[in-house]
Specification:
17 helices; alpha/beta; single chain; Hect, E3 ligase catalytic domain fold; 506 residues; 14 strands; Rossmann fold
Length: 506
């Protein structure tokens, strides 16, 4: 049976497992289970939140080319993805298009993928992995906030400055004298009334290297040049400017005069929050993403979705109303939520029990290895029973076993309190998906819709259509069709494979 392996590490997600350790585990897993590892792909330093990774793309190209791969072996699910929606969609794609099953080295080879509890536990793992990613980002955001609050610029130096370190090895901006002259010229000429293109013709020969039509506007909008640092909004504190610890290239009065001129020229932006389906909803004729626009009537703006190719205009009011009705119908009743809670609780309890047993076994094995190490040291130091070469060979083997057992104990040392907290926090939300949806920001709303309906959601003017509905909500597909709200044109094959039912037979 052919398999491909995939390993990944990112400095941002702070994984404790090196690529070498992951590779060793993937290879050993394949050997134990009689799998032929046709290829191993590794992404070093790539994001866990998207599959836009160099070696992942190479892996997909390999799968398409060979067409004989049956399994994808990963070290653990957080190495595969830390994005619940993206992970489930990618698993579905690999299963349906290529017939590939995904196995983690922490899972049994004979895992039943048609078992609903397996699906739920995997989804729960990805949910926890995504939660951890957001916690890491939150800590990073807090660090960036406090750094900015202290007047430090923490990212790549803008044109005209250099990134350096102070006496305490902390980041600081210093002036690039040659480029600073160019920055001062840009501000000076803009205040004199020259256009952006006229300024560009002056500063490019001077050595202005930034490309793009908006590069000069970005310079003019950057408060760093006035010795100011922008502190982002954080935990109720509004966005604001503070005095930076770096030298200014222009005066604050000139900076604000420039901002006044820029603001008078800017047009108002569309309120994207009013059109959450933009970037999600597709034209039912050409399958392109619909754009959004508005028209004014009775002193109020009315939003609509449009396909410029086919001159289709769909009322935002109507589509949003239908969407909320669908979310109401997809919500679970109390009995179903209680059933899910029972099944997941049983799975978590079983995992905790297994971890306890595994921990005791690993501790017992580690004590034996430690005793062997002491014995080998005593024999080498106190007797002539073993030579230096034999001693080194024995100690290398025992030290390797010791490290592996210590790593296992570290893996088993998991605090499941957060699992229970997430279980009790997330499951009740299934009872009111509309409220959950409305509580999200725009990005999360779009991610939620893509997770539930895949990336094929359409509206023909009368009813929503999709080729995918998340298996978790499949029990309501006939109700949605009968109400004329949603038609699933090609129900996911995974629905046919799932066994078991909730109290209402879903």
């Amino acid at each position: 049976m052919n398999a491909v392996g995939y390993i990944r590490i990112s400095t941002k997600d702070q994984s404790q497992y090196s690529l070498e350790y992951q590779e060793q585990n993937v290879r050993q897993y394949c050997e134990r289970n009689g799998l032929t590892l046709a290829a191993l792909f590794k992404d070093d330093g790539e994001s866990s939140y998207t599959f836009d990774r160099p070696d992942w793309k190479a892996l997909e190209a390999f799968i398409k080319k060979t067409k004989s791969v049956e399994y994808l072996v990963i070290f653990d699910h957080d190495r595969f993805s830390r994005n619940l929606a993206e992970a489930l969609m990618k698993i579905k794609e690999l299963q349906e298009k290529f017939g590939i099953k995904i196995l983690a080295t922490t899972e049994s080879f004979d895992t039943d993928f048609s078992d609903p509890s397996t699906f739920m536990m995997r989804a729960f793992k990805y949910m926890m992995a995504e939660n951890e990613l957001w916690r890491i980002r939150s800590r990073t955001k807090a660090g960036m906030y406090h750094g900015a609050l202290s007047g430090r610029f923490l990212t790549t130096a803008p044109f005209g400055f250099k990134n350096e370190r102070d006496g305490n090895k902390r980041p600081i901006l210093t002036v690039n004298e040659e480029r600073a002259v160019i920055i001062k010229t840009i501000f000076k000429e803009f205040l004199r009334g020259l256009s952006v293109e006229q300024i560009r013709k002056i500063v490019v020969p001077m050595g202005f290297t930034l490309k793009g039509k908006s590069s000069i506007q970005h310079v003019l909008s950057n408060p760093v040049y006035a010795g100011l640092i922008k502190v982002p909004a954080y935990k109720g504190s509004p966005e604001r400017l503070v005095k930076g610890i770096h030298p200014a290239l222009i005066s604050e009065s000139d900076y604000w005069a420039v901002q006044q001129k820029l603001n008078s020229k800017r047009s108002t932006r569309q309120a994207k929050e009013e059109v959450p389906l933009r970037g999600v909803l597709r034209c039912h004729i050409c399958n392109r993403h619909l754009t959004a626009g508005n028209s004014k009537g009775n002193k109020k703006y009315y939003w609509y979705y449009v396909c410029s190719e086919h001159r289709i205009n769909l009322s935002g009011v109507k589509l949003h109303k239908h969407l909320y009705e669908i979310l109401d119908d997809l919500s679970f009743d109390e009995k179903d939520v209680a059933w899910f809670h029972k099944k997941l609780s049983e799975s978590i309890s079983k995992t905790i029990s297994e971890k306890t047993t595994n921990t005791a076994n690993a501790q017992k094995e580690l004590r034996k290895v430690n005793e062997k190490i002491i014995s080998a040291e005593e024999k080498y130091l106190l007797t002539d029973d073993i030579s230096m070469d034999v001693y080194k060979t024995i100690m290398t083997k025992l030290k390797t076993q010791q490290i592996e057992l210590q790593k296992k104990l570290l893996e088993y040392d998991t605090d499941y309190t957060e699992y229970w907290q997430k279980l009790n926090e997330v499951l009740p939300k299934l009872r009111d998906l509309r409220q959950v949806f409305e509580s999200f920001d725009l990005l999360k709303q779009q991610q939620f819709l893509n997770m539930v309906f895949g990336e094929s959601l359409q509206h023909d003017g009368e009813v929503y259509r999709t080729s995918f509905l998340h298996p978790l909500f499949a029990h309501n597909r006939m109700t949605l069709k009968e109400k004329g709200l949603l038609i699933i044109e090609q129900p996911a094959s995974v629905l046919l494979e799932m066994s078991g039912s909730a109290p209402d037979r879903s």
